[in-house]
């Protein structure tokens, strides 16, 4: 799969027919190329964006289906009602551990935009938990932009997509 670049574009310059993906995370936005894991930073799974979490909640970015929860609740595969598939991935360096206080419902469950998927206790961490949103089948959606350097889960748009 060819890596698709996600670039910054101010909201006022976005196309009117673009598709907005609400942020499932709160925190500071960074390009996926800054991810510490080469698997993600090289865009192996597809284009995406990274957020250094400042909040403990992970919310559904759209209405759709929770396809899978994997890797002890650190990966969520979601499918929007329009067919878009995304991976929400949480990364923490090897020396630290997170305490889960709530993980999403069963695989195959319907989700609604803003619904809580997970809740983590971040108080004992020495470095921020990094969260990524990867577009698994977004190869037909170009260009892809982010417009904010800081996002609030369930409120702000994390990515804006345009159909080819």
Averaged pLDDT: 84
Low-confidence stretches: none
> Globular, elongated, flat, extended or rod-shaped: what is the shape?
globular
Number of DSSP helices? Answer: 1
Question: Main beta sheet, described?
Answer: 8 strands, antiparallel
Number of strands: 15
Task: Report, as a whole number of angstroms, the end-to-end distance.
Answer: 17 Å
Helix percent reads under 10%
How does this structure look, described?
It contains 1 helix and 15 strands, in the order βββαββββββββββββ. It has 164 residues and is mainly β. The strands form 3 sheets. The protein has an 8-stranded antiparallel sheet with strand order 10-6-7-8-12-4-3-14, with no helix packed on it. β7 and β8 form a beta hairpin. The longest helix is centred in the N-terminal third of the chain and has 4 residues. It is globular, with a radius of gyration of 15 Å. The mean pLDDT is 84.
């Amino acid at each position: 799969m060819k890596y698709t670049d996600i670039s910054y574009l101010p909201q006022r310059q976005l196309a009117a027919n673009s598709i907005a993906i609400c942020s499932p995370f709160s925190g500071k936005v960074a390009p996926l190329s800054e991810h510490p894991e080469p698997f993600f930073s090289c865009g192996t799974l597809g284009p995406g964006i990274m957020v250094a979490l400042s909040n403990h909640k992970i919310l559904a970015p759209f209405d759709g289906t929770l396809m899978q929860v994997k890797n002890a609740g650190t990966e969520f595969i979601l499918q929007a009602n329009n067919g878009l598939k995304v991976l929400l991935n949480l990364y923490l360096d090897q020396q630290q551990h997170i305490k889960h206080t709530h993980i999403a419902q069963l695989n195959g469950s319907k989700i609604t935009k803003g619904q809580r998927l997970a809740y983590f206790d971040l108080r004992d961490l020495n470095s921020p938990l990094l969260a990524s949103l990867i577009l698994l089948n977004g190869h037909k959606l170009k260009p892809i932009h982010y417009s904010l350097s800081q996002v609030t889960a369930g409120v702000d748009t994390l990515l804006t997509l345009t159909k080819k």
